[in-house]
Write a structure and sequence with these properties.
- The complex is a heterodimer of chains A (about 375) and B (about 725).
- Chain A has two domains: about 1-70 and about 235-375, no CATH class; about 80-230.
- In chain A, α5 (about 75-100) packs across α7, α7 (about 145-165) packs parallel to α9 and α11 packs across α12 (about 275-305).
- Chain A has helices spanning about 5-10, 15-35, 35-45, 50-70, 75-100, 120-140, 145-165, 170-185, 190-215, 220-230, 240-250, 275-305, 310-335, 355-375; strands spanning about 100, 105-110, 115-120.
- Chain A is mainly α.
- Chain B contains 21 helices and 33 strands.
- In chain B, β21 (about 470-475) and β22 (about 480) form a beta hairpin.
- Classes of the chains: A mainly alpha (about 375), B alpha+beta (about 725).
C-alpha cells in the first residue's frame, strides 16, 4: 500500500476539506517565506530560513492538532462546551486587565510554565461557537421561545463579545456576526434576531461611552480614526496605498514567487496584508485560489448542514466554518480596501503562532463532524 | 415550511452572501490590479526602492606608537520619517506630546514643547518622510534620542532614522594634517573628481574597507532612506594604517617651524625629520601663511620641487671625490669670490671669499663658496673627453647613482619629480652655464623630501633608504601586513667618499657657515643653503630678490639617528641665510629630540661617578623638605638636613647640599614664595586662605602681594619663569 493510499484511507471525512487545508498550508508557507524577508533581517541577522522553519513547524503542529481533533468524536465537544464557556469568561476578564500589551492592545496572555502566549479571544471563539451550536441544536423544538431558548443563547454571546470588544473590536464583531448567522441558520425568530442586533448596537454605544472614561482599556479612539480615515478616502492611508501598489504590481500574472517588492513597505506583509503579497507574486491565479478555497469550504459545510440540519454537529461545523470564512473575507476585503483597516489575519495563511493553531483545531472539529455525519448518512 | 427546508433556505442565504462577498472582493482586486493598475504602479515607482551601497566605517591612521592621528568618529544626522509604516495615527497621537517635550528639552531648545508638538503634527499632516531632527550628533546623543517616545519603536515602527556620517576626527588638530590628508567625494554629474590627499588619499582603499549594500527607498528629490535598519550586505570596516609619524617629534618640528616662520616673517616653510637607518618619516610639517594664520594647505615637502641652492653642493662634492679628481686638502681657486662662466658672473656670498685667491676644497665647502665648487665641476666635467663623449654625463651619472634623478616614491600622491637637465635633450636647454650653476644647486629641481633622502643616505653610510610613512596595515589591532624599510640603493658612493662627505658636513657646523649653531651637548652635521628664488625676473633689482633659506643635516654626527631638513621660503626680516633662518629651526628640532631620546645621550657616569663641585649643585632651591630629600636620595647626591621646618632651602657648600630652614610664619600674613615651585607655593598660599592666579611656567619669580601683608583672602598673582 503506497503512502498516498494510506493517507487517503486514514483521512476520512470530507476529503475536499482536507484538500483545502493542504492547499492553504502550501500557500501559507510560500507566502510567509517570501514576506518575512524584512523582519528576518531585523531580528534574525538576515536568516530568513528561521521564519520559514518556524512557520513550517507551526503548520505541521497545526495539522497534527487538526488530525487529533478530527479523530475525536464531535459529540465530545458538546459535553465540553459549558465548561469551556465558563473557563473563557474569567480568562477574557483577566486579559482585559492583566494581559500582555502588544501593539498598544491587551489581547494576549501568557500561559505560565510553558510560556506560550495566546490571544484569549481565539479560545473564546471556539468555546462560544461550540456552546452556541449545542444550545441551538438542543433547543430546536422550542427555539422561538424567548425565555427558555433565546435568553440562554443570547447571554453568553453578549458577555463574551462584550469582553472581547474593548481591546479587539474587529474580533468581537466577527464573533458576533458569526453567532448572528448561526442563530439565523438555527431558525431563531427574526424578531429576536432584530432584538439581538439592537442589543449589539446598545452594547456598542455603551462601550464607546465607557471608552471615553477608560481610554486605556477601550480603544475608542482607534475605532473612530480608522472609520474616519476610511470615509475620508483611504488612498492616503499608507498601508492601503502600499497594498494597492502590490495588487497593481501583480496585475494579471504576478511578478513571480519571491519577487514582491511591496513586502518591504507593507506593515506586517506576513499577516494582515499577506493577501496583497500573494496577489503581487502570483497574480489573479493566486488571489482566486485563496478566495475559492474559503468559498469552497463554505459550500462543503453547507452540504453537511443539508445532510443533518438539526444536529449539533452540523451547527458546530457551520459556526466554525462561518468564523473562518467571515474572517478571511473581512481580511481580504480590508486588503482590497472595501472595509476600514482591521487587525484580522487571513486564517491558516497568515503567519502568527497560536491563532493558526486555533484555526487548525477548528478545521479538525469540522472534519470530525464531516466524518461522523458521513457515517450516519 | 418544514424545519429542514427552512434551515436550507437560511443556509443558502448565508451561502449566497458569502459568494457575493467573495465575488466583490475578487472584482475589487481585479479593479485595483488591472483597471487602476497603471495609476498605482506609478505611485509605486515614485517611492521606488533601490539597492544602494553605503560606506563602511573607515579605518584609523595611527602614529608610530599607536595613538590616533585620524579616526572615524561616528556622528549622526537624526531624521524622522513621520509616515513610517508602523507609526499609526493612534501611536502618534498618544506619544506626540512626550516626544515633543523630549525634543524641545534635549534637542532643539528653540521650541517650546507645545510649539514642537504643533510642528510635528503639521509635518505629519504634510506627510514628511525625512524630517531633519538634529545634525551631527554624537553617538551618545543619538542613543539618547533613539530612546525618546515613538523613536524607541525603531525605524519602521517609529520613523527614527539615524544616518551615520563618515566624520573624520584628527585628535592632534593641524599636526601633520596635510600628510594625514583627507578625501572628498566628487560630483559625477558636474564632473568633479574625488579629491584624495595625503595618507588618507594614498591608502584610501585600505582605509575605506568594503561598501555595504542595503535596500533604500526614495522619499523625495534625491533623498533615500534605508528600508530597514539592517543591510543586505554588511560593510567591511576599513583597515588601520600604522604610520611612522611620531607625535612628539611631529609636535617639536611643527612648533619649531612655526616659531621660525613667525620670527622671520616668511611665506611658507617645511620641516621633515627622518630616521636614518630605516627611512621612516617621523615628522613632516608644512606651513603656509594665509589670512587665517599658518595652515597646512599644501604638502610642499613632497609636492613642490624647488632649486635647492647650496645644500645641493654635497652632490658635486661626492662626484669629485668619487672620481678622485680632488682631495679635501687640495687648493681650489676662489678668485676673490667672483668668476665668469661664459657671459655669466658667479659670485660668492661669503665675505671670507672676497680676500681669498684660493683655499682648500674643505674650506671652500665649509664657507659654501660657489666659485670654489662650481669652478671644480666646470673644470673637470666640461666639454668632451678624448673619445668625444660629453663629460657632463659622467657627472650626471654620479647624480643618478645618488638617486637624485628619481622620485622617492613616498606614499603621498602628487610627489613632484626631480628635474635634472640632460645635455642630450633639446628641450632641457642645456648651455655652457648649466653645469657650473647645477654645481651650486640651480637649474635643477628637487623636493625637500628628495634632498633629505639623499642626505639621509650620506648619514646612513651610503645606503639610500626609501622614505616611507607607513609600516603596518592593521585590522582590529592585529597586524595583517608589514611594510619593511626598503633599501633603494646599497651604496650611493664608495664608503671612503661617504666618510669624507660626513667629515665635510660636520666641519660645516664646527667651522663653516653653521658654526654659530654648534652646541657642546652633542655633535650634528649639515649644510646650509640660501637660494635666490626669482633671480631671472629681478636681475637688476637686487632689493626685491626673494630667497629660500634651508638647512639639511643629521644628528648626532657620529652614529646618526635622525636626519632633518628645514626650508623657509621668503624670509624677510633682514636675515635671509640658511645658517640664520633655517639653521636655528633645525637646532631647536634636534635639541628637543635629543632631550627627548635618552638613547642618544652619552651616560654621564661612563667614566665613574664624578665628584660634584659646588657650582654644579643646586643652591637656593626652596621647596617641601620631604620631596627635596626624596629627589636628592634618588640622585644619590650627598646632603645634610639642618632643619625640621616643613619647607627648606638648599645651600651647596663644597660637595654637600645642606637643607637649611625656611620658615613660613603662622601669622596671618602673606608669606614669601619666590623661588618655590608652583606646587609648594600653592600649598603655602592656599593654606593662608589666599586665592592664587598664575602666569607662565617654572618657579615663582614674582608675587603680586608683598610678603608680610595681612591676608584677607585676597587673590595673589604669581609670575613663573
Amino acid at each position: 500500500m503506497s503512502i498516498g493510499n494510506r493517507i487517503y484511507a486514514e483521512l476520512r471525512g470530507d476529503r475536499v476539506i482536507w484538500m483545502i487545508i493542504a492547499v492553504l498550508s502550501v500557500i501559507s508557507i510560500l507566502a510567509v517565506y517570501s514576506s518575512t524577508g524584512t523582519i528576518a533581517y531585523r531580528s534574525q541577522d538576515g536568516n530568513t530560513e528561521f521564519f520559514l522553519l518556524k512557520h513550517t513547524i507551526l503548520i505541521f503542529g497545526g495539522l497534527f492538532l487538526t488530525y487529533f481533533c478530527y479523530s475525536l468524536h464531535y459529540k465530545k465537544y458538546s459535553t465540553l462546551a459549558p465548561y469551556l464557556i465558563l473557563l473563557c469568561i474569567p480568562l477574557l476578564a483577566y486579559t482585559i486587565v492583566f494581559g500582555n500589551e502588544i501593539n498598544e492592545a491587551r489581547r494576549w496572555i501568557t500561559i505560565p510554565i510553558i510560556d506560550l502566549s495566546f490571544q484569549t479571544s481565539d479560545f473564546a471563539k471556539l468555546a462560544l461557537i461550540t456552546y452556541l451550536a449545542r444550545a441551538i441544536s438542543s433547543k430546536q423544538e422550542y427555539i422561538e421561545d424567548f425565555n427558555s431558548a433565546f435568553l440562554p443563547i443570547i447571554i453568553p454571546i453578549v458577555i463574551v463579545c462584550g469582553l472581547i470588544a474593548p481591546s479587539d473590536l474587529s474580533s468581537a464583531l466577527l464573533l458576533f456576526s458569526t453567532c448572528f448567522f448561526m442563530m439565523f441558520i438555527g431558525r431563531v425568530h427574526w424578531k429576536f434576531l432584530l432584538m439581538l442586533l439592537m442589543m449589539g448596537i446598545v452594547l456598542f454605544t455603551f462601550l464607546i461611552t465607557l471608552g471615553t472614561f477608560f481610554p486605556d482599556y477601550i480603544r475608542v479612539d482607534t475605532w473612530a480614526s480608522r472609520i474616519m480615515e476610511f470615509r475620508e478616502g483611504s488612498d492616503n492611508i499608507y498601508q492601503v496605498a502600499q497594498a494597492k501598489i502590490a495588487f497593481a504590481n501583480g496585475e494579471w500574472l504576478g511578478v513571480g514567487p519571491g519577487n514582491s517588492t511591496q513586502r518591504n513597505f507593507l506593515p506586517s506583509p506576513y499577516a494582515d496584508y499577506i493577501f496583497a503579497v500573494i496577489w503581487e507574486e502570483y497574480g489573479f491565479i493566486g488571489g482566486l485560489t485563496v478566495i475559492s478555497m474559503y468559498v469552497m469550504l463554505m459550500f462543503r459545510t453547507a452540504s453537511l448542514v443539508t445532510k443533518s440540519p438539526k444536529a449539533f454537529g452540523a451547527m458546530l461545523a457551520m459556526g466554525l466554518t462561518l468564523i473562518i470564512v467571515l474572517q478571511a473575507l473581512i481580511n481580504m476585503a480590508v486588503t482590497v480596501n472595501l472595509l476600514p483597516v482591521t487587525g484580522l489575519t487571513l486564517p491558516f495563511v497568515s503567519m502568527g503562532g497560536t491563532s493558526l493553531l486555533f484555526t487548525a483545531i477548528a478545521f479538525g472539529m469540522i472534519l470530525s463532524v464531516s466524518r461522523y455525519i458521513e457515517k450516519v448518512a | 415550511m418544514n424545519i429542514k427546508n427552512e434551515v436550507l433556505v437560511r443556509v443558502y442565504t448565508v451561502l449566497a452572501l458569502v459568494v457575493v462577498a467573495a465575488v466583490l472582493i475578487f472584482a475589487q482586486a481585479i479593479n485595483i490590479a488591472v483597471i487602476q493598475g497603471d495609476e498605482w504602479r506609478k505611485v509605486g515607482e515614485k517611492s521606488y526602492v533601490q539597492m544602494r551601497s553605503f560606506d563602511a566605517e573607515r579605518g584609523n591612521i595611527l602614529a608610530d606608537d599607536g595613538s590616533l592621528l585620524a579616526t572615524a568618529l561616528p556622528f549622526f544626522d537624526i531624521r524622522f520619517d513621520l509616515m513610517a509604516a508602523g507609526l499609526t495615527q493612534e501611536i502618534f497621537d498618544a506619544n506626540v506630546d512626550s516626544l515633543a517635550h523630549c525634543l524641545a528639552v534635549h534637542v532643539d531648545q528653540q521650541y517650546t514643547p507645545g510649539g514642537m508638538k504643533s510642528e510635528l503634527v503639521r509635518l505629519r499632516q504634510e506627510g514628511k518622510r525625512y524630517h531633519l531632527i538634529a545634525r551631527n550628533v554624537s553617538y551618545i546623543k543619538k542613543e539618547q534620542i533613539s530612546q525618546f517616545p515613538i523613536f524607541r519603536r525603531g525605524q519602521n515602527g517609529g520613523g527614527f532614522i539615524a544616518e551615520r556620517l563618515a566624520t573624520r576626527k584628527r585628535p592632534y588638530g593641524s599636526l601633520a594634517s596635510r600628510t594625514i590628508g583627507y578625501t572628498k567625494k566628487g560630483d559625477n554629474k558636474r564632473g568633479v573628481k574625488d579629491t584624495k590627499v595625503g595618507l588618507e588619499g594614498y591608502f584610501d582603499k585600505t582605509l575605506s574597507g568594503k561598501q555595504g549594500k542595503r535596500l533604500m527607498q526614495k522619499v523625495h528629490g534625491d533623498q533615500w532612506i534605508p528600508v530597514s535598519e539592517l543591510s543586505e550586505i554588511e560593510p567591511t570596516t576599513g583597515n588601520d594604517i600604522l604610520t611612522t609619524i611620531n607625535v612628539n617629534i611631529q609636535d617639536i618640528a611643527h612648533e619649531a617651524l612655526l616659531r621660525g616662520l613667525n620670527v622671520h616673517n616668511a611665506e611658507d616653510g617645511v620641516a621633515i625629520v627622518m630616521e636614518v637607518e630605516t627611512g621612516e618619516v617621523k615628522a613632516i610639517s608644512n606651513l603656509s601663511r594665509t589670512e587665517n594664520g599658518w595652515v597646512e594647505n599644501y604638502n610642499n615637502a613632497i609636492g613642490r620641487a624647488i632649486e635647492p641652492g647650496s645644500t645641493f653642493k654635497l652632490a658635486p662634492m661626492i662626484a669629485l671625490l668619487e672620481d678622485d679628481l680632488i682631495d679635501l686638502n687640495d687648493k681650489v681657486e676662489i678668485s676673490l669670490g667672483e668668476k665668469e662662466f661664459y657671459d655669466e658672473v658667479m659670485k660668492d656670498a661669503s665675505k671670507e671669499s672676497f680676500n681669498l685667491d684660493s683655499t682648500t676644497m674643505r674650506r671652500a665647502f665649509e664657507i659654501s663658496s660657489n666659485v670654489g665648487i662650481a669652478g671644480q665641476i666646470f673644470k673637470h666635467y666640461r666639454g668632451q673627453d678624448r673619445h668625444g663623449n660629453i663629460k657632463a654625463h659622467r657627472f650626471l651619472n654620479h647624480l643618478k647613482k645618488m638617486n637624485l634623478h628619481s622620485p622617492t616614491g613616498i606614499e603621498i600622491k602628487g610627489e613632484a619629480k626631480p628635474r635634472i637637465k640632460n645635455p642630450d635633450k633639446n628641450e632641457d636647454d642645456w648651455s655652457g652655464t648649466t653645469l657650473p650653476w647645477m654645481a651650486i644647486g640651480y637649474e635643477l629641481l628637487l623636493t625637500p623630501m628628495q634632498l633629505l633622502a639623499f642626505y639621509n643616505a650620506v648619514a646612513n653610510d651610503g645606503i639610500y633608504m626609501k622614505p616611507h610613512l607607513v609600516t603596518e596595515v592593521q585590522q582590529f589591532g592585529e597586524t595583517i601586513k608589514k611594510i619593511k624599510p626598503k633599501v633603494v640603493r646599497e651604496r650611493i658612493a664608495s664608503l671612503k667618499t661617504i666618510k669624507k662627505a660626513q667629515e665635510l658636513l660636520l666641519s660645516v657646523v664646527e667651522n663653516g657657515t653653521a658654526h654659530k649653531l654648534a652646541t657642546s651637548r652633542y655633535q650634528f652635521a649639515g649644510k646650509t643653503g640660501t637660494a635666490q628664488v626669482n633671480y631671472n625676473k629681478f636681475k637688476d633689482q637686487k632689493k626685491d630678490l626673494k630667497h629660500r633659506a634651508s638647512f639639511v643635516g643629521y644628528f648626532p654626527a657620529k652614529q646618526p639617528k635622525y636626519s632633518c631638513i628645514v626650508v623657509v621660503s621668503a624670509p624677510n626680516n633682514n636675515s635671509i641665510y640658511g645658517g640664520d633662518v633655517a639653521g636655528p629651526i633645525f637646532r631647536e628640532i634636534s635639541d628637543k629630540i635629543y632631550s627627548l631620546e635618552i638613547d642618544l645621550h652619552q651616560a654621564l657616569n661612563e667614566r665613574g661617578k664624578p665628584r660634584m663641585k659646588t657650582k654644579y649643585l643646586p643652591t637656593l632651591n626652596i621647596g617641601y623638605k620631604s620631596d627635596m630629600e626624596t629627589v636628592l636620595n634618588f640622585l644619590e647626591l650627598p646632603h645634610a638636613s639642618e632643619t625640621s621646618t616643613e619647607m627648606t632651602a638648599t645651600f651647596a657648600i663644597e660637595d654637600t647640599i645642606r637643607l637649611k630652614p625656611r620658615t613660613i610664619k603662622d601669622e596671618k600674613s602673606v608669606p614669601n614664595v619666590v623661588g618655590m615651585g608652583l606646587r609648594d607655593a600653592l600649598y603655602v598660599l592656599e593654606n593662608k586662605g589666599l586665592r592664587v592666579e598664575i602666569d607662565g611656567v617654572g618657579k615663582v619669580k614674582r608675587q603680586s602681594i608683598k610678603p608680610g601683608t595681612r591676608t584677607r583672602g585676597q587673590t595673589i598673582k604669581l609670575t613663573l619663569s
